[in-house]
Amino acid sequence: MGQVTPASGSAAPVERPPSGTRLDPWLGSYADRTHGMRASEIRALFAVANRPEVVSLAGGMPNLAGLPLDDLAESAQRLVASRGQTALQYGSGQGDQTLREQILDVMRLEGISAHPDDVVVTTGSQQALDLVTRLFINPGDVIVAEAPSYVGALGVFRAYEADVVHVPLDAHGLVPEALEETLTRLAAQGRTVKFLYSVPNFHNPAGVTLSRERRPRILEIARRHGVLLVEDNPYGLLGFSGDPLPAMRSMEADGVIYLGSFSKTFAPGYRVGWAVAPHAVREKLVLASESAILCPSNASQLAISTYLTEHDWKGQIKSFREMYRERRDAMIGALKEHVPDASWTVPDGGFYTWVRLPDGLNAQAMLPRAITALVAYVSGTAFYADGQGADHMRLSFCYPTPDRIREGVRRLAGVISAEREL
Length: 422
Ligand code: PMP
Known about the structure:
Elements: E1 3-4, E2 14-15, H1 41-49, E3 55-56, H2 69-87, H3 97-108, E4 119-122, H4 124-136, E5 142-147, H5 151-159, E6 163-170, E7 173-174, H6 176-188, E8 193-198, H7 214-224, E9 228-232, E10 256-261, E11 273-276, H8 279-293, H9 298-310, H10 313-338, E12 343-344, E13 352-356, H11 363-372, E14 375-376, E15 378-379, E16 392-396, H12 402-420
Parallel strand pairs: 3-14, 5-6, 5-8, 8-9, 9-10
Antiparallel strand pairs: 1-2, 4-11, 6-7, 10-11, 12-13, 13-16, 15-16
Helix pairs in contact: 2-9, 4-5, 4-8, 6-7, 10-12
The structure holds 4'-deoxy-4'-aminopyridoxal-5'-phosphate.
4'-deoxy-4'-aminopyridoxal-5'-phosphate is lined by residues 60, 124-126, 150, 152, 199, 204, 232, 234, 261, 263, 268, 273.
Pfam family, one: Aminotran_1_2
InterPro entries: Aminotransferase_I/II_large, Class-I_PLP-dep_aminotransf, PyrdxlP-dep_Trfase, PyrdxlP-dep_Trfase_major, PyrdxlP-dep_Trfase_small
Region (Disordered): 1-25
């Protein structure tokens, strides 16, 4: 049996844990909660999908080409020169006060009125998802989530050993009758539902938006069943037509934890998002965040705060919306032309369309052949906790140019027709 040599002295050699392997001698030591952890299908794809010859319709990277990089560089330089002692120092666990006030201006666009004390700044909304799940989930507790759901949220839920129960979406978002039926059934089974996780706007991956009419109904059902709503809204300001719909947090404060992010409307590299939560929950979120990260990055927060003060951020969002709309049009046009017998959602904002393959084709099985044909997508199976979704794929139109999107869909059409002949 192999041994780990002690660092020094004459102590007895340390035996490898009995269930270890040569690859990982600590295999027997991991906590149970790690057993559900696995690389996201998307991250696993990244290495190949990012090769220049591959048209990647897989990732959800925002396109930053329109950002005023020279101005941002100049602001960053000025920030460190004039406020470096603060920007480079530890900060508040809850987040910078000025930025929290500015976040209120952002959320006002979706009808939310809150107090700066209600806001907790996080390291992207991904950290907020982790904190919320850590606060509420014991192993085996139920989280009700849309079918399909954001893959990064499912990864967090799995890491805390939640049992995810899916509720269907249709073209108008989460189906209230199905939610009612699911919550009633789970209550009858004596299951504890801790929260409902929803992405109401320009859903990742489904591309659909919860209609205005359904929003109060979803809130009413959740309230009646005593279930907290986690409203995850990174895309809400990226609509292609009309004004943003009111957030559910604007209709109800006590039963909603709202998550926002600067990743899609500005830049994901700063890793700044936020949560707005009822008072007692918010205090626990701050404690949990402090124990995880001490405080969010001051440098990032002050850079974003400066950007919001000095730049026309609303104008920037408008130009992002126009860019993404043009790309959405390119993708939908190409799907109509090249794969007319598939079906897809037509998103009115955001980054994604959700495509149902024709003839019972399997998106997961087809993926290696798509990569060989130099086009990448994400198989629908990534977006379910229970292995469904092989008949769907998520196509993102955020990053490639319209011409590359058309070329990608053309390649995909070739893969699909070859697949039918297999
Ligand atoms: N929620 C959803 C629905 C997302 O699509 C993403 C990013 N892909 C996130 C949360 C996390 O975003 P971030 O941590 O960059 O704010």
